[in-house]
Amino acid sequence: MQTQPQPSKLETILGWFIPIAALLAVGAWFYIASEGALGKLDAIGYAVCHRIDERSFQIGDRQLPLCARCTGEFYAAGVALLFQAIVSGRKSKLPSRGVLAVLVVFFLAFGIDGTNSYVYLLKSTSAGALDHIPNLYTPNNILRLFTGSGMGIALGAVLFPVVNQTLWRTLDDRPALEWKSLGTLVAIIAAINLLILTDSPIILYPIAYISALGTLSLLVTVFMILWIIIMKQDNAFESPRQLWLAFASGLTLALLLVLSIDLLRLQFTGTWNGFPGLTG
User: Fold this and answer.
1) Element at 63 (helix H, strand E)
2) Residue 67 and residue 73: Cα distance in Å, rounded?
3) What is the residue extent of each domain of the chain?
4) Any idea what DSSP says for residue 125?
5) Is 59 helix (H, G, I), strand (E, B) or coil?
6) What crossing angle do the helices spanning 97-124 and 179-196 adopt, rounded to 10°?
């Protein structure tokens, strides 16, 4: 019969310290963020997104926590991770070359549309100084949403097997995302995108939460994996219940990063809205 190793003194100390630090980080997030539930979500989006009003979807006269591109990217990444957790379990192998090629296309579309959109933004704020630089096309929020969500699928598809490779003692050595599951995931994301484009508050309110929490979930996952590697605990877990300390550590570090960026940007711009002077 295999016995579980006794926790070290450091692990015992961290077992008390990390939950307290996590609660303090959550409390600080609630304290500095704007009022209301959407204000708390804004504080997450504010750390990773320019939040330009014209490039964001609106609920009435209120913009979502993230711009159209980041909304697509982070909600799709969150959905992709959840989808794979349900259908793939502990499958830990990266997708096949064919699937990876599709994900590379998603990445390239994201990069091309993002670059074209950024050039358009620079031209709109340069008083004609950059008019000699051509645009491939006029950017719009529909393209931002779809290219962003494609990038989100790619992020989730690569991150999920890496997480499994790091966490579990017993692995399923099969690709975490295969052609059938990729097709299903893309169909789900495309359907959600079409619902978002209806501009219905019934759709946009949940998307505001899913996109902001998707952002946070990505940060928490990355920091959790980093914590596990630093603590030399990779491939040491058999059950999700054993991950509570690593999760709390990832949450604490993610919130500290969000808070640091928020305070720095707020000090620099003086507003929770998009960067002053940037429109279009």
Assistant:
1) strand 62-63
2) 10
3) 37-269
4) T
5) strand
6) 30
